[in-house]
UniProtKB/TrEMBL annotation:
The keyword Lipid metabolism does not apply. Keywords: ATP-binding, Kinase, Membrane, Nucleotide-binding, Serine/threonine-protein kinase, Transferase, Transmembrane, Transmembrane helix. The chain crosses the membrane at residues 326-348. SMART domains: PASTA, S_TKc. Residues 349-416, 417-484, 485-551, 552-612 form the PASTA domain. The keyword Nucleotide-binding applies. PANTHER family: MITOGEN-ACTIVATED PROTEIN KINASE KINASE KINASE 20-RELATED, SERINE_THREONINE-PROTEIN KINASE YBDM-RELATED. Residues 292-317 are annotated as: Disordered. It catalyses: L-seryl-[protein] + ATP = O-phospho-L-seryl-[protein] + ADP + H(+); L-threonyl-[protein] + ATP = O-phospho-L-threonyl-[protein] + ADP + H(+). Its EC number is 2.7.11.1. This is non-specific serine/threonine protein kinase. SUPFAM superfamilies: Penicillin-binding protein 2x (pbp-2x), c-terminal domain, Protein kinase-like (PK-like). InterPro entries: Kinase-like_dom_sf, PASTA_dom, Prot_kinase_dom, Ser/Thr_kinase_AS.
Amino acid sequence: MGDEPVDIEVGPAGPLIGRLVDDRYRVLEPIAVGGMARVFLAEDERLERRVALKIIDDRHAGDPRFAAGFAREAKTVARLSHPNVVAVFDQGCHDGLPYVVMEYVAGRTLRDVLNARRRLPVAEALRITDQVLAGLAAAHRCGLVHRDVKPENILITGDGDELTVKVADFGLAHAVQAGSDATGEGPLLATVAYVPPELLTGGRVTARADVYSAGVVLFEMVTGRVPFDGPDPDAVAAMHVERVVPAAGSLRPGLPADLDALILRCTRRDPAARPPDALSFGRALRGVRGRPVGAARRVSPPTRVVRPPRQRRASWRSGDTAGRGLFGQFVMVAVLLALVGAGGWWLADGRYTQAPSLLNRDAAEVEGIAAAYGMAVEFTAPRFSQSVPESRVLAQDPDPGERMPRDGVITVTVSRGPERHEVPGLRGLSLAEAERLLADLQLAAEVVERRWHDGHAEGEVIDSDPPGGRVVHPGTVVGLTVSRGPVPARVPDVTGTDEADALRAVRGEGLRPEVERRYSPTVPAGRVLGQSPPPGTGVALDTGVRLTVSRGPAPVPVPDVVGESVASALETLTEAGFEVVVRGDADGRVVRQDPEAGRSLPRGARVTIVAR
């Protein structure tokens, strides 16, 4: 390209497909369009992974309160790491539109599942809800409330025992609500079927709001419909505030009574009457799902009653004492033999039973389950597990089905979940030191960027991704940004200057200007509207600096005024932004105009009309 600027035509709302967002995320294809954002599949070119890129609608991006709230919520959610939550990797702003970079989940939404099947088997609905609540519980422990739990925000991969559920869009609803006009319709219309009453009435929003929404989602999964439906969102909102959610069992006969009662409890209008958070909801749900069925009344072995043989009525002679003695001895021996037999049965079989299975049960449930069998539980030190979720039983002794005393003790080992390590602080370390430290923690190091930095010597770590303090799985690749040494060149500030001056300034720093041109109603033609990288950025020599230069106001089509009176033509052309020259009879009608109608000219251009 040499020293010549590169002209790139950019329309007012050019397509994002193929574009590079923030010099990192290559937009590949659209995934979804919602009421306040568009979601794209993108490639993170630094870490070479697929991500979901959510770009907020400019309708919301123009609100500074929303932009600030969105950035704050994205940073908060990025600290949340849980297998049932869609991870947030990054956030920023592209062409004035806030965006967030999330984990890409190649699956389907719960809405897709319900659209295809209408309602689900109870066991499947409980499996899905259990994982939804696990994700929400992790958020609630961090002080986060989702505020927009609905089937569209529940992502599903796999089937059966391999089914995995992830909750998406934490915090986004809150950011929108914080930036919306309190007197307007707000963003609740699209999801009003799941919104708790306190969110509609301006009440205090706590984790109990998510409990309500999750209860409504569970209601829909088992009945095939939402509790309230109406002609418009306002009518549905009024029902949430004024009515009691109907019993799910009334719409699905045969639904377990305790599940029906739990759904009613979680969807009560008064937040204080609901479980306090998703953890409590989940424990109650697992009690419904995990109660031993038909179990376990302890039945003692039948007691054998040994009766002596019926005595025939006989008249014993007074001298027959020897016969009576023999008979008494016989009875005593029979009784002793019977007692020995019963005791032998008890010692050989009656004291023992088969160990019940506590595997994969929640740790909070196992003592109650064991007690139902007359047994006790002892806990050993928890262990990490890649396959068994945190707080679930990983192992037990005796194993399920093994013989054990009826009043025995089952030793259980609870899972700590997948092994995690905290990323250490690496800033200022040499690359070799950082690699050794990460290897000691079973983490991998990868240099993802080398850049100039005045504050770090060549070879020192500037930053890491994930950052220091983030808890991650063993084997996680930690991306390192490494210093190339002090900055050889800095991008000059040329915004607002003439194009020629800007080109000279950029070239004077040893950098290469690249020019794109764009219409602007406010900036005169030939002046620089914007630049990238920003002023002051340290870069290598011969780095390209993109300059956006104003074309001035966009062209306007010339109206057709032939046949109009001169006065009317003047008004029409002046309102369109043109300077008008009148030739001929000022009181006549226009017979010709130059330029002709339909031709596009800049505002302020001259249009001549001829009148007779």
